[in-house]
Write a structure and sequence with these properties.
alpha/beta, Spore Coat Polysaccharide Biosynthesis Protein SpsA, Chain A, 9 strands, 19% strand, globular
Length: 266
């Protein structure tokens, strides 16, 4: 295991952790790191968990010690295993997941902290730019349509209280693409969790992740998560068939392959 020495910011109670999982991310990671270096509020910790990249990703991480607080380099069991490692290594009370191909706007950290102070929430849902479109808002009543209909985006657009994992568990390794969807459904449908939507745009969500490429798998995992969280099986079966038919051309034209990042995308 390899680590970059922690910086002072990571131990500050006002800090926010940013958790990023990488695998052969040399083309994307520099943009993410530059967006974090440009933050108006630099009191955050960045934890990068690399699953054994064979390109220059690890060298890039080491070369950016001014912004990388902790780096873990070792084999893992996929994206969510890596994120779980990052969360456990966090020294902050709140965290945001950023994919290697995501970017933050310069005021993202400052805006998230302001939203926390104003709301005292357990989860903050910010607006996100994705595919040239801004996604906004939070709706608990849309849970029957799936987690992606409830929130803007797990990556970039959601700040979580880390202690929620003590109550709801860590990201499940049963789901290779959408374990965040299960966590979001469990957390954001609970009456005991305070969720607040805010209007600011936190950043841009990269759309090259594997949940956008392995569409068939993402649709199946969405269906299974809906069943696991107690939604009506018949309605969910109809939704699954409708989505499968709608995305069939994409499925036939884009064979799945392993990518660097996965996130909510259905």
């Amino acid at each position: 295991m390899n680590h970059v020495a922690p910086q002072t910011a990571g131990a500050n109670s006002d800090s926010i952790s940013i958790i990023t999982a990488t695998l052969n991310s040399e083309d994307d990671l520099p943009r993410l790191l530059n967006s974090l270096r440009q933050q108006t509020d630099r009191n955050f910790e960045l934890i990068i968990v690399d699953g054994g990249s064979r390109d220059s990703t690890w060298r890039i991480i080491q070369a950016h010690a001014d912004v990388v607080t902790v780096a873990i380099g070792e084999p893992d069991h996929g994206l969510y295993d890596a994120l779980n490692k990052g969360i456990r290594a966090s020294n902050s009370d709140f965290y945001v997941v950023l994919g290697a191909d995501d970017t933050f706007r310069p005021d993202a950290i400052a805006n998230y902290k302001a939203a926390l102070r104003a709301s005292g929430a357990d989860v903050i849902v910010a607006a996100v730019m994705a595919g040239g479109v801004i996604r906004r808002g939070f709706s608990r009543h849309r849970a029957w349509l799936g987690h992606s209909a409830m929130v803007t985006s797990h990556s970039v657009g959601m700040l979580f209280r880390k202690a929620l994992h003590d109550r709801f568990g860590y990201y499940s390794l049963r789901y290779s693409l959408l374990a965040d969807g299960l966590f979001i459904k469990q957390v954001c449908t609970s009456d005991k969790v305070r969720v607040t939507a805010v209007p600011f745009v936190a950043g841009e969500f990269g759309t090259a992740g594997s949940s956008n490429r392995d569409v068939a798998r993402a649709l199946f995992e969405t269906w299974q998560i809906q069943l696991d969280t107690g939604e009506n099986p018949f309605i969910q079966y109809l939704l699954f068939q409708f989505r499968l038919f709608k995305r069939l051309p994409v499925i036939l034209l884009r064979p799945s392959r392993r990518e660097k990042k996965a996130d909510s995308a259905v």
